[in-house]
Amino acid sequence: MWRKIQSDWPAYLLALVVLLVIVLKLPMNHHERVLASLEDSTWHAPSLYLDPIKNNQERELITYGKELIANTSTYLGPKGTVMQISNGMNCQNCHIDAGTKPDGNNFSAVSANYPLFRDRSGEVESIYKRVSDCFERSLNGTAPDSTSREYQAIHAYIQWLGKDVAKGSHPKGSGIKKPDFLQRAADPEKGKKVYTIYCERCHGVNGEGQVNLGNTGYSYPPLWGKNSYNTGAGLYRLSNFAGFIQSNMPFNEVSAHNKLTDEEAWDIAAYVNSQPRPIMKESHDWPDISKKPIDHPFGPYADGFSEQQHKYGPFLPIVLAREKN
Fold first, then answer.
1. Does 26 score more than 90 pLDDT?
2. What would the pLDDT profile of 129-151 be if each residue is shown by its tens digit?
3. What is the distance, to the nearest Å, from the Cα of residue 143 to the centroid of all Cα atoms in its chain?
4. Dihedral pair phi/psi, residue 42, rounded to 5°
5. Is-contact 110 133, C-beta < 8 A?
6. For residue 231, what are the contacts with CB-CB under 8 A and spacing of at least 6?
7. CB atoms within 10 A of CB 85
8. Distance between CA atoms of 31 and 69, rounded to whole angstroms?
9. Which residues contact 227 (CB under 8 A, 6 or more apart)?
10. Measuring CA to CA, which residue among 311, 201, 199 is closest to residue 264?
11. What pLDDT, on the 0 to 100 scale, is given for residue 281?
């Protein structure tokens, strides 16, 4: 046996070296993972399970708020068990995972930044005004009363989600990450072809969505038609919708890398937003028309560009013209 070890010592030595490398490498990998997690500044929502709320009444209200955001239609939809004030969509159709997903239009920065002056209304807005807008525009309905338990629960949930966010800050992953501008206008016809590949299986040929098994709302929301968001909604602006779908769609298929290219995202957004939907009269929006976003789809404008270009682009000429003035 000893003679065999002596004769095969180079092999044993190599095996020992490999073993040492593996043993030493394991803690390094762990260390690197810890450093990577510390360097990742993306906002992550608190957990009702890992970060429990001690006050029972507060916990119940916040939990109900989360439930209302996730399953709005069950409580407040056309067949709502509490009120019938919305179109059948859920808040989390536009605020993914009940407003907790990074780059999913989450609620992380809401509490830290409201009250907030907004150019759209020309006023300082409260969280209630912001929630009301969502009900009236994205849910094409009526806002709950500010004194109702339902609004109080939504408000408590939004505040709890942002409890660790510094006042006036916008954490990484908040809002909507918008794709780069194209050199051309977004093309609804090209978007229709890409929609057929990536979107039609969930949202339907006619953008009608899929009703859930209980017939209380949608498993996949309608993207146009009478039950979808109206023309006053934030997602009716092309950059918002293009950014939203690129960061989150196809649903559950986007990880660290977007599946849709910039061109695909812009073109799908153009196709979807060119389809019929409820109209909201915006007579009180943008009292200072010079503050309208470059992709606000309705005139009048202060920059001389057409309504068509403001809706579909190309947007770079508008940006450059505004920078000169």
1. no
2. 999 999 999 999 999 999 999 99
3. 21
4. -60, 135
5. no
6. 277, 278, 279, 280, 282, 297, 298
7. 20
8. 38
9. 87, 88, 89, 140, 208, 209, 218
10. 199
11. 87
Q: Which residue has the tokens 């995202």?
A: 265
The CA–CA distances, whole Å, from 191 to 137, 269, 308 equal 24, 7, 17
Q: What one-letter code names the amino acid at 281?
A: K
Burial pattern 277-313, b for ≥16 Cβ within 10 A else e, equals: bbebeeeebbeeeeebbbbbbeeebeeebeeebbbbb
- Owner of token pair 């409890």: 163
Give the number of other Cβ atoms within 10 Å of residue 151's Cβ.
20
The one-letter amino acid at 272 = V
Contact assessment for residue 109 and residue 174, using Cβ atoms and an 8 Å cutoff: yes
CA distances (Å), origin 226, targets 79, 175, 201, 205, 283: 16, 27, 20, 15, 21
* Token digits of residue 290: 């010079």
- Residue 102 CA to residue 226 CA, distance in Å, equals 29
